[in-house]
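User: Hey, my collaborator sent me this sequence without any context and asked if I could get a structure. I don't really work with proteins. Can you help?
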Amino acid sequence: MLVLSRQRDESIVIGDDIIITIVDIRGEKVRLGITAPAHVPVHRKEIYEAIKREAESGHRGGKSGKVESLAKKPKDQPADNQPTPKDESEGTG
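Assistant: No problem. I've predicted the 3D structure and written it out in structure-token form, which is a compact way to encode the shape of the chain:
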């Protein structure tokens, strides 16, 4: 595992077309903005694992449709592979 230190507004580049930016740091929570091509899936780990489990159970004939609802976001929320704009309503400290 590569471990890098970054501060707010600094980025990490993966390959030629994936950029991870530190958007905000509050206590022990870090907000990341991820810019990636549309064909590159980007998910939180727990969603990724649920998608894999669903795919495996689908091969066995059981389809619950649960993961589809997890992977879909309401239209007013950014997709997992798009950067999240900083919420201006949240105080800066």
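In plain terms: The longest helix spans residues 45-59. You can pass these tokens on to your collaborator as they are.
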